[in-house]
Please model this.
Amino acid sequence: MTSLLLSLLLALTAAAAVPPGPAMPGDGVGVRAAVPGAVPGAVRPLPAPLAVVRWWDPPPSPYAAGHRGVDLAAPVGAELRAVGPGRVHHAGQVAGRGVLSLTLPGGLRTTYEPVRPLVAEGEEVAAGQVVAVLTEGAHCPGPCLHWGLLAGDTYLNPLALLPRPTPRLLPTTAAPGPAGV
Model:
């Protein structure tokens, strides 16, 4: 049993040392290494756990169909937080929807919609600060936050901003077996 646990621990350690591979549509995590100027200490825009309704699905070309963000389930009225420190780039209506866009360190820009912004253009925000309230929208079958991330004109997976969860080994709850097993 001990050798099995040690083998598992060594395999997990070796896997953690391998950098993430290329992004696959819908994988939600493959672009972590590709986020330029990642935001240290980034926080979730909504309380944990995040429930992804629709994953990031980048288009094959700039003008092709795709999903340029992630949709997170949340009730109308949910408070949305700044994922990192930055400055409000836009707070207002775009195509009839409330949109909030924040410029983060390293030139990244994150967007939230549909929202009622609680901050004004040009205002400085802190990581974790409540910056908007989720409103009704037609983007998802139920209420959701569409959360996007851009580096220049390139859309990235916003989930890549968040720290990876730490794997933990839990003790077994089974009764101990015979000696030596």
User: Anything to note?
Assistant: The helical segments are 2-17. The mean pLDDT is 79.
